[in-house]
From TrEMBL, chain B:
UniProt key word Membrane: yes
Annotated transmembrane regions: 6-26
Listed Gene3D superfamilies: Cupredoxins - blue copper proteins (2.60.40.420)
Keyword Zinc: no
Superkingdom of source: Bacteria
The protein's name: Cupredoxin domain-containing protein
Amino acid sequence: MISKALETVGRKVGGARSAPSATTGVSSEAKGSRRIELPVSGLTCARCVQAVEQTLRAVPGVRGATVNLAGGRAFVEYDPEQATIAGLHEAIKAAGYRVGAAKIRFGIRGITCASCVTKIENALLVTPGVLKASVNVGTEEAEVEYLPGAADLSSVKAAVGAAGYEVAEAPPPGGPEEVDKEAQARDREYRDLMHKWWFGAAVGIFTMIFSYPWLFPLLRDWFPRGSPQLRYIWVGMGVASLAVLLYSGNQFFTGAWQAFRHRSANMHTLIAMGTGIAWIYSTIALLFPQIFPASEFTEVYYDVTVVVTALVVLGLAMELKAKGRTSDAIKKLVGLQARRARVIRDGSEVDIPVEEVLVGDVVVVRPGEKIPVDGEVIEGASAVDESMVTGESLPVEKQVGDEVIGATINRTGAFRFRATKVGKDTALANIVRMVKDAQGSKVPVQRIVDVVSGYFTPSVAILAILGFMIWYTFGPEPRVVYALIVAVTTLIIACPCALGMATPMSLTTGVGLGALNGILIRGGEALQTAQKLQTIILDKTGTITYGKPVLTDAVAVGRFREEELLRLAGSVEKSSEHPLASAIVEGATSRGLTLLDPQAFRAIPGHGIEAMVEGRELLLGNLKLMRDRKISLDSLEARSVQLADEGKTPMYVAVDGEIAGIVAVADTVKEDSKSAIQALKTMGLEVVMITGDNERTAGAIARQVGIERVLAEVLPQDKAFNVQKLQLEGKQVAMVGDGINDAPALAQADVGFAIGTGTDVAIAASDITLIKGSLRGVVTAIQISRATMRNVYQNLFGAFIYNALGLPIALGVLYPFFSILLSPLLAAIAMSFSSVTVITNANRLKRWRPRAA
Amino acid sequence: MAWDKILVDLIGLGLIGFIVWFFWLVKTAGVRAGLTSSGYQEQMVLVKGGYTPDLIVVEAGKPVRLNFVRQESASCSEMVLLPAFNKSAALPEGETVAVEFLPKEAGEYEFACQMGMFRGKIIVE
């Protein structure tokens, strides 16, 4: 049915676009010929290209079809009178490939009936380039499949508008709009709380004054104790304070009730009970003074009710403000996203929203612009500032073939790149998602807190009742007043919130801090383990070193000069595919040498290669090759051994049977590896290097960077086993390596650090991912974990101590000795202050900066 | 001891007994998640002062989808965590947020808000 719909639509499309001219009978548009670019997916080989091209050419009306394998695109020239877009689409599908149509979902307002659905669907289907459209009444959403070359988001939305309906802009998940929405909701709640606070505060001042009129000179005369006019004022206060409870304290009572229905209790329960009891007592004392034995019992505590409510509400508002700041990191990351992109469509540059960029699109970036999505440079070169994603402060040089990361900023040159990851697959989107997940995880110490908080609130209620009983039974007169104040103060001073927020707040800030420094921490567990690590195992290749051999030495002897040696060696290796060969070729060209094409090239397995360059007979290889050819090495053999001792791979070069020198290549150490390893050692960590290389090479590198313990000649599959061996020594072991080859070892380690390479940030086996490939990240990550955990313990300690001191004081343990009894008002201030302190302390963590330890 | 003191203490002890019984001793009956045609065990969870239902029974080996709807603005409940399945979700007020996971082994797993004030349990059979 759908395909049939497509046919009709397709025809309409063709017809609408190029109505034949009345005079000539042919379409005015390029003489009846249209060109279209179709994204085709599933193209894996050159043969597929031919298959698709043939299929397309076989469609009646198609004049030409070329398929670009790399770009995954088919360029079709066709006569719209005979062929349709839908027809082309069908043909490609029939050949077993898919047309990479873009799919979007968006909300539509004003859908009231089922007939609207068909109306909108039809409006969408007649839009050129739209392949499929379905509208759902229930969700008020439309799902549209379209060909990005022929239609775009705005034309699709315009079609909905033309049909008389409004498009409800659906924000992409995790996009800036969603973050804005969260901020808006927070703002709304904050304003609401502030209104409640001001109302409570205004009534509070009035009740405070008239609760104790005898303290004020004028009022003392007008409202003496026990006078009827004071009673009237108090009745007024009772009504006003009830209004405060119902408006300002609304959330405490509803929250308490909801919790009660779930057989649980929380902060709301305590506050509601405290303020409620004070109000009820006051009202009874006011209305039925006769049931109390003496007049001192008949005082009212409306001030407690109102002021406590107001203060706790203010505390909540401050808490909300501070909480908003803990997730700043996410906001910053999301804010990095580019909004628009300039891509090549149909051969010309078009400016489109970044959501419409498709995999395979060629994106144009000018100096100073933000790179919209992830991709690979195909033309041009530039320096790119990646600091916002990787934490690397120096701009990174980008050339053809290099990967670029979305949201980074192009500094110097203009270039074009092919988009490889868009939307939710980009590095930035992954980072945001990972950070959010991590912030929502739990630090293992939280488990203790969870157990405690499960018992906390009911225990406080029990303590309050016990306090009441003890004061009533053994306390001084007026007993009921003291007992009441003690019970209410106890209920109010207890702060389960401070306890509950202690770890999550620090975790949120700590994880965010990591992300802003190019370090992705998977969750609370990794964070907690990272701070107590004892041993760090570093993989050699790709972690300590670049993992790519480069030319390090050229030793020329006899009549040869270094330049000539390199030029000849480079020319010989030009035809070789060995990784060491490309190091020599690159080394030679980077020194500005022009290489020649070798003739009679022959590889001698296990020995080296021979070839003719400029008519000279060249040999390049190891000692065996030179011995076989009886070439005298003179003093060079010692030099070769020396180079090998330094961890390099030396190769002899001979020209026309005479030794010319040695070229050596080696995997070089990253610039900051040595300082990072030094820093790890000063932090008290044992550093171990693990590698598959032989002892000699491994030892050479280890000496260079200052590592004493080396595990050499370890097969890749045995790395995890070696990690386990170190763990059996009773140590907390971290493994640092690349996320793919070292995955088992990373998983085995207590904390696995994956050294990331650009856009591939979602590495499964790692607990911590370093986006920048530098070992300094390990240092920073451990520092962050230590700082965060210190913050967590500070918060937990503070919260525990606060409750452990506050509760006994509220219960009046100090009274028998110092006659000190806490006022409920002070309890309310202390309670609000304690939770704000916890959040403020967590926010303090944001000021942390990586130190050069 | 005066009669009023004895009365107050008796009432107090009674209240303590009630608190212990009400909050810690009573066990609520769980709700079994329904199986949808797509093979998910689905359950709606209302977030308002707590989780309703707060005891959900599911079968092991079949994917579970919990649809959380938060109908309150208190910031306490703005996130729900399922630490056992390494899942967490922000719950904007009034929106339905689905959290999916695959329980592999039988057991009891907690879900809670970030501060641990709201709790619920998933029983995997």
